[in-house]
Amino acid sequence: MLNLNIFYDPNYWLKQRRLFNRYLSQSSISNPYYRSFYNSNKPINDNLIKSGPQKLVNNIIKAFNTMDSVEFNKHKYNNYYFCNFDSDLYNLILQTIEEKNNKVIVGPLYTNDDFLKLVELAKYKNNLKIVAASSTAKTTMLKVAKGEISPEKIVILPVGIDSQKNIKNLINKESENNNECLIYFKGRSESDLTYVLNYLNETKIKYKVFRNGKYKNSELIDYANKSNYGIIIGRTESQGIAINEMMSVNLPLLVFDSTNNYYEGEIFEGTTVPYWNEICGMKILKLNYIDRYFNKFTQNVIDGEYQPYKFVLDNLSFEVMHMNLKKIFEDF
Fold first, then answer.
1. Beta bridge partners of 255
2. Is the bond preceding residue 274 a cis peptide, omega within 30 degrees?
3. Residue 194 burial (CB count, 10 A)
4. C-alpha 8: how far from chain center
5. Which residues contact 304 (CB under 8 A, 6 or more apart)?
6. What pLDDT, on the 0 to 100 scale, is given for residue 178?
7. Which of 117, 63, 110 is nearest to 94 (CA)?
8. 3-state secondary structure of 178
9. SS3 258
10. What is the spatial distance between Cα 297 and Cα 230, in angstroms, rounded to a whole number?
């Protein structure tokens, strides 16, 4: 692994929290508890996380906090990875890239306005590149930049989901063969969910619905482990960490894909599953296609056609993230 400084600012997801929240873990009263972990660069329990940016950074801490060649929030080496960017970090990043020997990558956590600020910096600084979470996210950001930045200045870096050892250990389980279905629901209309539930009720299939932001992470993983397959009714994603976690425990997925990415008031092309191939499951574009494809999908599950954990091992493990980072800095 290369020598690397990783910077992250917990204020990126903590500063907007209010005192009163239905979840104590999301109330500002819990911020000192979180900061005690971040000050020691230790990951927190995934069950306490409802925020995508916080989950992304938490996984990065898990992936790197035991590595002697990586420092968090310290200036020790010439390779810098800033996970998030906003006005609070502008001056620090500006000072860092002024040193020509430093190599700096930033993202994928930034707003549209902050991304355009990074574009302006990257246009004139050869030692700065911007991180996108996936190829579809990169395509969107290039369109947002409107030709003001070359594609080489945006690098793709998905966050790792778990170590290869842990992934292999988790999939060594006996399926209960109980024909249970995990449903993951995020950013779609209630009518879409109702349509799928009506179909499952008619076919007498047991299921449990997990609504984004309204479950404990351990409950999602536990149910994914006992289920035979999952159904994703989701919006477009830049990566889709929760979906990747389901795949990591070898849960075959039937995905109702969303291809319209609504970003900062504009519509771009996207997908619900940016990291995907045929061993992960089946993608369909319309809900009413469930009648046409569901039996084929479940038969493929029975026949062992899908092994999504292998895709995660090859593309989304901590070890692969280490290699991806190393290559990014080697290619500067």
1. 232, 283
2. no
3. 11
4. 16
5. none
6. 66
7. 117
8. coil
9. coil
10. 11
